[in-house]
Amino acid sequence: MTLTHGQGCFVWDIDGNRYIDLSNNYSALVHGHAYPRIVEAVQKQVSLGTCWAAINIEQTRLAKQLIKRVSSVEQVRFTNSGTEAGILALMIARVQTGREKVLMARGGYHGSLMEFETGFSGRNGPLNYVAEYGNLEDFQQVFADHGDRIAAVFLEPVLGASGVVPGSRVFLNGVKNAAHMAGSLFVMDEVLTFRLGLGGYQQVVGVEPDLTMFGKLIGGGFPVGAVGGSRHMLNILNPADLKAFHSGTFNANPVTMTAGAISVEELTAERILEMEKLAAMLSAGLKEAARQAGLPLRINRAGSLINLFFTENTSYAHHAREDQEIIEKFHLAALNHGLFIAPRGLIALSTVLTDTIVNETIERALLAMKDIT
Ligand code: PMP
């Protein structure tokens, strides 16, 4: 489908139909579309120049916020996407350890890079080991068998693409310890989950990684990624030292940095909590709607992130799902009733959503569910 514009929590298609946007560009638009403070600041920045090959003030402003909020982060490098953040984190890990391989979760996603293929698509990434998300012994076993070849383990603190599956503190810390015992780095991918706590999900769950990947909301609606970590970790990229080389024509461009700094600033603790409350309200309403429509519905939720599964069964850490046919139908039926959700049933709330719109969403979802039964 073709969309023409967005405003707040709505988008419009080329035929003039309005949809409640529950995807928010896969969570990147944490303040919805055309957020007034961002629009105003970006317009001003565009008139002042959009990129140059030197530092800009906005980049420092955004970096300082990330450093203030995330205790494991002392320095930040910006990229133009979460995928590039993964490439950079991998480069740092390889240079720091002198090793090549990566360990990740089956069903994990860290961007479209060959090294991360196996976990997500099942295809054979050339440099990759996988283990079962949530199963500490499985990760420990891979480290026991191949630890001396693994540069880093990459983990999302909440599996996103596999259906919003939160990792426990015991699991995440256990993998970190196993990594450190093997001399590998522990990289936490917070591209999707940074929205879940002032200091990201690592603060919520209480686990400090060696490196953190950021993306999505820290660009305020513009292409972005970043890697953060300790001075020691990132210092290899220091141009004076240059053990590793990282550059990019549009990295930290002032437009993205302006939008990103406002996006992060405006994601206050109160707003994170408010989104979580609305997400709980939406989940309860959707469950009741499913009951009325006679459909099984399981909802995975972490804060303002939700994933719908039309089944009674639990634990979705994999790509294949038994409700594939129903979720596809629901996605289309929801569109017909003015709801824009991700085809896989991912819903990411925004701070501009209200309880009135949540109620309207539940009513529309009930109609969509009735259409498919
Ligand atoms: N990691 C995670 C956890 C993601 O959710 C995504 C994007 N869906 C990425 C990395 C890649 O980010 P990008 O799409 O900006 O390349």
Summarize the structure.
With 373 residues, the chain is α/β, with parallel strands linked by helices. The chain contains twelve helices and 16 strands. α1 (36-48) runs antiparallel to α9 and α11 (324-336) packs across α12.
Features:
373 residues; seven-stranded mixed sheet; four-stranded mixed sheet; 12 helices; binds 4'-deoxy-4'-aminopyridoxal-5'-phosphate
Explain the overall architecture:
It is a single chain. This protein has about 375 residues and is an alpha/beta fold. It is about 40% helix and about 20% strand. It is built from twelve helices and 16 strands. Strands 4-12-11-10-7-5-6 form a seven-stranded mixed β-sheet, sandwiched between helices. A four-stranded mixed β-sheet has the order 1-2-3-15. A hairpin with a 5-residue loop joins strand 8 and strand 9. The model has no long low-confidence stretch (mean pLDDT about 95). 4'-deoxy-4'-aminopyridoxal-5'-phosphate binds next to helix 3.
Helix-strand category: alpha/beta
SSE order, one letter for each helix or strand: EEEHHEHEHEHEEEHEHEEHHHEEHEEH
Ligands, deduplicated? 4'-deoxy-4'-aminopyridoxal-5'-phosphate
Given the structure, what is the number of helices? 12
- Summarize the amount of helix as a percent range: 25-40%
- In total, the number of strands is 16
Q: Average pLDDT, to the nearest integer?
A: 95
Largest beta sheet: what is the strand line-up? 4-12-11-10-7-5-6
Shape: globular
- What is the rounded distance between the termini? 24 Å
CA-based gyration radius: 21 Å
- Detail the poorly predicted runs: none
Percent of residues in beta strands?
Answer: 15-25%
Largest sheet: 7 strands, mixed
